[in-house]
Fold:
Amino acid sequence: MYGFDYQRPASRDAAKTAASGADARYLAGGQSLIQAMRLRLSQSERLVDLGGIADLKTIGVDGNGVTIGAMATHAAVAASNEVRRAIPALAELAGGIGDPMVRNMGTIGGSIANADPAACYPSAVLALNATVRTDQRTIPGDAFFTGLFETALKPGELITAVTFPIPTKAAYVKYKQPASRFALVGVFVSQAAGGVRVAVTGAKSQVFRATPIEEALNRSFTPEAAKAVKMPTDGINSDMHGSAAYRAAMISVMASRAVAAALAR
Structure:
């Protein structure tokens, strides 16, 4: 690991000040960043730890949906009674991330800012039509993820919260890599007044919406309708864990299971 300056501010304003005028990065749990730095795959002159900012950890439900502060840990989301009542699929997704250490340190803001193509939270952002709130603006979930480990965030822009509209039905199912518990293929399905949204993680270089399955489920919200869709292999990952054809087939299978789980609530 290369040397760096470490700061832990107690407010958003102090964090912005600490991050200015240097090659600085926000530290939002560090479950990916610290490992990359240890391997010398990443370096920064300064790390600004957001863990001391209390108002970034809040979780609340109101007429606009469920709003989760950027520094709320996966464990806190999984344990939240408010989230469990409003969007149980979101609490279950959080409870299935990594292992206990990861869930107690990793945060929703850190996860979506990192934009790992196999992370779970990005699928919830797309499928639930969420809004990412920063210190500068609001970003629609559909516009947030822009590529492999890339987002619409500007340099120094700080995620403050994510707001998820409450769906009529929703569920997330993933076929996970046994060691890491990252999704080899993960599918989040939601049904709301605006229609069905289906988001897939782990299958391409970034999270994406499976529009063929959305169209099928808008006609018939059944497991059979999802499973009958043959997803194209264009852009689908192919590696030691599975070919593109295998992953494409698994998208329909996971979507079918997610619909079944949503209907069973």
